[in-house]
Amino acid sequence: LKPSSHPCKQRPVEQRDWAAMAAIATVVLMQRRQGALRAPMDKVSEERLLAFEKTMQEMRQLKQVLTKYDTNRSHRLEEDQVKKLLTDINHGEAPSDLELCFIIKLCDSKCSNGAIDLSELKTAIESWKSYLHHRDKIQEALSQFDKSGTGKLERPELQSYLVHLNGGLEVTEQEVDWVLSQADVFGDGACSTPELVMATGAWYTHVEDKRRKEACCAIS
């Protein structure tokens, strides 16, 4: 028998399968455009729709911020552009070099390139606002516990600070290690002013987790 000259039978089975799926997909898409097939939106709760709309609105706002400060159209905010953004958020007061470096290092995680991309922009803005809110109290704590005068809390000083936060109760070496792992953005084994904000937040998160575990153990 001679092999069939039909073009479809000359193609491999896998290619024929892909062609069939593409044809089906084309028909389905055309039907959806014409309204023949509609997504069951009536089954989506109002809360989920509102949450989706909120997310979309937030994304539009972030894109507007990126467009405003991305003066060279690189689709990311480079150091000088991040500085301008943080200055505007802080009512015209520019961040120090340390604060600027901290925000970039802290938030440049999803697309590590030394800049702030759209996916990192929300975290950068929220982190800066949180830091500004706590900065004065953190600087007071730094002045109180920085016995070495280095402008940051070295490991023993950090431990003393955590004991203070813990109401005078002992803080273990393991707990200090954990706090440093969460807060030591610059990787020097100490906590500068912006890093101390992270350390404080990490400590209270740790305390809350301990309380939950103790409560669970008491119930069981």
Question: Can you give keywords for this protein?
Answer:
220 residues; mainly alpha; 9 helices; 0% strand; globular; disordered N terminus
Q: Can I get a quick summary?
A:
The protein contains nine helices and no strands. The protein is an all-alpha fold. Helix 6 (118-145) crosses helix 9.
Description:
The chain is mainly α. Helix content is 67%, strand content 0%. It starts with 6 loop residues before the first helix and ends with a helix.
Number of strands: 0
Low-confidence stretches are: 1-16
Helix/strand-derived category reads mainly alpha
Biggest pleated-sheet summary = none
Helix coverage percent of residues?
55-70%
Radius of gyration: 27 Å
DSSP helix count? 9
Shape: globular
The CA-CA distance between the termini, in Å, is 77 Å
Q: Order of helices and strands, N to C?
A: HHHHHHHHH
- The fraction of residues in strands falls at under 5%
In round numbers, the mean pLDDT is 84
Topology of helices and strands:
Layout: H1 7-10, H2 13-33, H3 46-69, H4 79-89, H5 97-107, H6 118-145, H7 155-165, H8 173-183, H9 193-219
Helix pairs in contact: 5-6, 6-9, 8-9
